[in-house]
Amino acid sequence: MDRPAFVFSHRTNNFATHQPVLYSAVQRSKGPVAEFGCGYGSTPLLHKFCAEQGRPVVTFESNAEWIDKIRAEFASDTHWFIEVEDWETIVRHPIVQQTDWGLLFVDQAPFEARLWTVKALGDLPAYFVIHDCDYFPEHGLFGTAHRKLAGPHDTGIRTYDDVFSSYKEFFPLPPWPYAPTGPPTLLASNHFDCDIDIDFLAF
Q1: Over 80: is that where the pLDDT of 126 sits?
Q2: Which of 31, 36, 105, 160 is 20 to 30 A from 133 (CA-CA)?
């Protein structure tokens, strides 16, 4: 199937503000990629750039209608799709836990499923890219909110050292696609340095 060329949309689409971070994590990592929650902000990006590197991608999604639509466009010999009935069970499955993932993109619904993913897989030697990361400390799921995010003029303070030893938040370019949070994206790992700079203007 012929697909349109991939175009970064993080400046205008609040569902895609993670794109520069996700792309940078693909370039820094090695090995298979797990995508928890599919969509046009992440799946085409992972499909394109992982294929260029010869890396397999496994996309997990619980919405049957959504996964059927995305699968029809992007399934390939190196990109597989798995429909999820129960997120808490799938992230604890031995095959998922024992795969040598290089990168895990965490963006599925509901938000509690992202918590289960981080808790079950967070110690793997991999990079994690977690979208809408401010939600978790603000709602007591993981991380700590020290000062509330109020917009581009005051991005607040959050820490995530209860689950990751290295992490960094990234905000979209102003004006933010989604006010008042951005939303931000977390690059995190318990094995690799995540204190990197990403030039959003380059994308």
Answers
A1: yes
A2: 31
1 pLDDT above the threshold of 60: no
DSSP letters of the chain?
---PPP---TTT-TT-TTHHHHHHHHHH--S-EEEES--TTTHHHHHHHHHHHT--EEEEES-HHHHHHHHHHH-BTTEEEEE-S-HHHHTTSHHHHHS--SEEEE--SSHHHHHHHHHHHTTSSSEEEEETTTHHHHTTSSSEEEE---BTTB--EEE-TTT-SEEEEE-PPSSPSBTTTB--EEEEESSS-------GGG-
Q: How many CB atoms lie within 10 A of CB 14?
A: 18
pTM greater than 0.90: yes
Query: What does the block give as tokens for 104?
Result: 């895990």
Q: Tens of pLDDT along 4-31?
A: 679 999 999 999 999 999 999 999 999 9
Contact indicator for 167, 191 with CB cutoff of 8 Å = no
d(CA 138, CA 132): 11
| CATH hierarchy code of domain 19-195 | 3.40.50.150
Q: Domain ranges in the chain?
A: 19-195
